């Protein structure tokens, strides 16, 4: 798998991909809007169409690194796990002590995935989606994938 870093040559394509999968490039994290258009990250392209099939974006801070978005359209062959490994390596090299990622309570696939891939659940931001949905009104009240009300955020961490 050849992961490409996000750069000026693919930023527009990355922004379109994020807007398509997260309803906007503005990502709601801990009740605040986070602009993903400046994030670093890695992507995997379809060799023929050059369309993005997987993408991870992250934000490096002095002591921790946060995964801002993660999507894999070809599921179950380890692409997301490899993208996480890549970012964990970069975070370690920057001296970060933990890798953090937020997900919402309806997202059963990611709740399972993170716990099987080196993350532990550390905090629940109860009602953070309900209380801050006005910042991103496109966030549905009920997940169209699981039928579960989207209400809370859950923080996962990997100790590096
Ligand atoms: C959650 C998500 C990122 C997982 O992506 P993925 O590429 O399918 O992840 P992986 O292939 O690394 O792992 C998925 C499963 O496949 C299994 N798997 C990994 N490699 C495998 C292989 N070679 N053969 C068979 N199974 C394998 C893993 O055990 C894992 O199972 P688990 O989830 O029960 O732990 C993806 O489903 C997705 O994009 N979801 C929508 C967006 C989203 O929710 N993002 C995260 C929220 S922040």
Any overview of this molecule?
With 160 residues, this protein is α+β, with helices and mostly antiparallel strands. The chain has helices at residues 11-22, 79-93, 108-116, 128-132, and strands at residues 4-5, 26-29, 32-35, 40-45, 52-60, 64-72, 98-104, 120-125, 153-159. The chain has a single domain (4-159), classed as 3-Layer(aba) Sandwich (Aminopeptidase), CATH 3.40.630.30. The protein has four helices and nine strands; from the N terminus they run E-H-E-E-E-E-E-H-E-H-E-H-E. Strand 2 (26-29) and strand 3 form a beta hairpin. The longest helix has 15 residues, at 79-93. It is globular and about 40 Å long. It starts with a strand and ends with a strand. The mean pLDDT is 96. Bound molecules: coenzyme A (COA).
Give the N-terminus to C-terminus distance in angstroms. Answer: 24 Å
Uncertain segments:
none
Strand order of the largest sheet: 1-4-5-6-7-9-8
Mean pLDDT: 96
Number of strands: 9
Q: Tell me the strand percentage band.
A: 25-35%
- Distinct compounds present: coenzyme A
Rg, Å, rounded: 15 Å
Protein structure class: alpha+beta
The number of helical segments is 4
Give me the strand/helix succession.
EHEEEEEHEHEHE
How many independent structural domains? 1
* CATH architecture level-2 label: 3-Layer(aba) Sandwich
Oligomer: single chain
Shape: globular
Estimate the helix proportion, in percent. 25-40%
Main beta sheet, described?
A: 7 strands, mixed
